[in-house]
Amino acid sequence: MSNERLPYLFRRYCAGTCSPEERKELALLCLLPKNQQALEKIMEATWERTPLENDMPAAEGNLILQNILHPPVEYLPPVRKFGWQRQVAAASIILAAGMLSYFFLTHKKEIPAEVVQTAVSNDITPPVANKAVITLADGSELYLDNAGSGQLAVQDNVKLVKLANGQIVYKPTGDNTISTHRYNTLSNPRGSKVVDMELADGSHVWLNAGSSIRYPIAFAGTEREVAITGEAYFEVAHNAAMPFKVINGKTEVTVLGTHFNVNAYTDEASTKVTLLEGAIKVNNFGAAKILRPGEQAQITDKIVVATNADIEEVMAWKTGKFIFGEKADIETVMRQVSRWYDVDIEYQGKITSHFGGTMSRQVNISGVLSILEATGHVKCRVEGKKVIITPYHTTLEKQTINGQ
Description:
The protein has an 18-stranded mixed β-sheet that branches. It has a three-stranded mixed β-sheet with strand order 1-22-20. It has three domains: 2-107, no CATH class; 133-313, Sandwich (Jelly Rolls), CATH 2.60.120.1440; 319-401, 3-Layer(bab) Sandwich (Phage tail protein beta-alpha-beta fold), CATH 3.55.50. By secondary structure, the protein is an alpha+beta fold. It has eleven helices and 24 strands. It is elongated. The chain has helices at residues 2-14, 20-31, 36-48, 58-68, 84-93, 95-105, 113-116, 311-314, 330-341, 365-374, 392-401, and strands at residues 110-111, 133-135, 141-143, 150-155, 158-162, 168-172, 183-188, 195-198, 204-207, 211-216, 224-235, 244-248, 251-255, 259-264, 271-277, 280-284, 287-291, 296-299, 303-306, 321-329, 344-347, 354-360, 378-383, 386-391. Mean pLDDT is 81; it is low at 60-90 and 395-404. The chain starts with a helix and ends with a helix. Helix content is 27%, strand content 32%. α1 (2-14) packs across α2 (20-31) and α4 runs parallel beside α5 (84-93).
């Protein structure tokens, strides 16, 4: 069916008669690996139908180019050596890239995994295992990827259990009254799946890659306090008599029972605390702000509260997605890629463009990089565990110098 639809939709698109839904369908068909041979035949046919001696006026050619590449023709590499009809044929070669940029990267539609998944050499897969480590109170370490389901340890009358779904649970057994706290630390390295843990008080914590949390085996006294690095999402069990506190450096978040996310990676410009449910108080160097659902505290040397936080984007890491807002720069995008795939990033040239879009985190890194390249702003290559990012115009200049 797709073999029949592809040429039909291609002709309609070039004629400017495609509906928005048809353009979206065409973009997906062009990008599916199984349709690449059919797409190549359509391109060859287009090329053969455009003899050089019958060039069309520039204005008419430009109009067709605008139809093929919507949004504007900035996605099209220069092909000034050919007549306009040949430029139209060349534009068809990058039809999929231009359309993909328009429909997904500017409208935040999620790109299906089968579209962005590619098979190339030197590729890097997404995390397939949980590489997290729990350091117990006595200093011994438990590696979760090697641990089977069942009881892993008993400390202070609290069982540490790994469930069949991989969740880590602290289960009090009878009397766990303690006079002093003893702590465990859960460390989740880069390139590891998200960890789901239930603390002894019933609170849930999800820990992103490149993050850690230090917490009591059992809570005692008048408050519950944990310390984090990186990023964590909390669903705190309500206990008015024992407030729950999350500490990161000089930043302190105090709650009674609520759902919130803390992004405190050291390579980010600010610590961000985003509230989904309930109410929290954020303290930093003596300053304090009360957050309501949907608000985000952006913390540097002061606290700035944004009232319209994009909750879907904030929680994308927990729901298995990459979501980048329309104003995300390449560094913002690649910091997330770096943590998830455990790669280092090198930039060769200045990139000022912004990127926005949604895709699954369960695709190989080549799929993510191909989508970034589809914007026409950057070129990406993988060398071992390093990703090298180059401005697209710099790549074109090199090609011109080399006579390519």
